[in-house]
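ok so dumb question maybe but i'm new to this and my supervisor (M.) told me to 'just get the structure for UDP-glucose 4-epimerase' and walked off. so i did the thing. is this what she meant?? sequence i used:
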Amino acid sequence: MKTILVTGGAGFIGSHTVVDLVQHDYKVVIVDNLSNSSAKSIKAIEDIVKTEIDFFEVDIRDKDKLSYIFELYKFDGVINFAGYKAVGESVELPLKYYDNNIGGVITLLEVMEEFGVNTFVFSSSATVYGIPEKMPLTEGDKTGAASPYGRTKLFIENILSDVALSSQKWKIISLRYFNPLGAHESGNLGEDPNGIPNNLAPYITQVAIGKLEKLSVFGNDYDTPDGTCIRDYVHINDLALGHRLAMEYMFNKKQSVNEIINLGSGKGYSVFEIIDSFEKVMDKKIPYDITKRRAGDIDISIASIDKAKKLLKWEPRYGIFKMCEDMWRWQQKNPNGFH
Ligand code: NAD
Ligand code: UD1
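this is what came out, is it supposed to look like this??
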């Protein structure tokens, strides 16, 4: 049985990935400082997989504690989700983001190097494509992040590429996620945003549950058929699968790996189409106003997923209704998330 360290495993994407890994016979160890999550998500994982998970409440920038954990286990690979992700906050507090996101990965890589663990998956983001010139977005397209958060992702991708080129022993994949949506279908594990959500889907479900009054649709004058922005939404469990397949791809490779791979559905939905999908699933109307554009939003973002299909043999399994259905179940069962 292979053992995988999942940093940030108490968070949204990490927790779903842990479930997938454990259900496919991996031993998983979670390191998370709970800065944006709750230990209750670990309990929810354990209830789903019916196995105890080894969890350490540790900051990945704490080299001594991280080294201690590497002494306890012989890891076959590491998946890193630990990082901050609020775009707006990163503009106000750039150093907090550079320190945690970049500093965290550097410390983690140093400890991995010291203990001879060289297989690594990194959570990057579609945000690194900046203002795109064409759709769909392929991994070779030009990059240009528009926020400190986005730049941390871009810098880390570059650091990882340098590390992978420095020695044949490294196997590294950066996964560029598009827009994760959905929840575990038990309704017991899902996204638990802090305060008022920044992202569209949790905002919609919180309006539907009565926690928020109405949605603001940020602009209907974009260059799209209905005037609202188009995004590529991908089910959280498909993202989770992508991480396991990325790990397995590297485990099966004799030589070094240095890849960047998009994970999206390859399909685009406008804000109005997302509202409509949720309304059908919930069988209720979502009140909204059209307001001004949000700074930094682009008209369209859709992934080319050819590389993930070819290299990882990954294929998204779930469509938009299943994403909305699962997310709504989670929201109804847990109106206050894990709190
Ligand atoms: P999340 O905030 O739910 O999970 C991140 C986890 O990392 C949290 O549990 C947090 O407590 C932990 N963490 C943060 N800093 C840490 C540190 N220094 N040491 C230990 N733990 C730490 O976020 P998520 O949505 O699950 O995203 C996971 C990763 O994927 C992030 O790096 C994010 O930037 C990236 N990403 C997310 C999205 C998205 O839409 N959710 C899109 C693209 C990329
Ligand atoms: C946001 C982040 C991006 C991150 C991505 C996935 C910003 C500027 N970008 O992108 O870095 O990689 O999430 O987590 O924050 N919308 C509304 N009303 C709302 C919320 C959103 O109309 O209350 C619209 C937005 O204008 C956008 C669409 O819904 O057109 C999707 O928004 P969101 O869920 O925030 O995702 P992204 O904008 O793609």
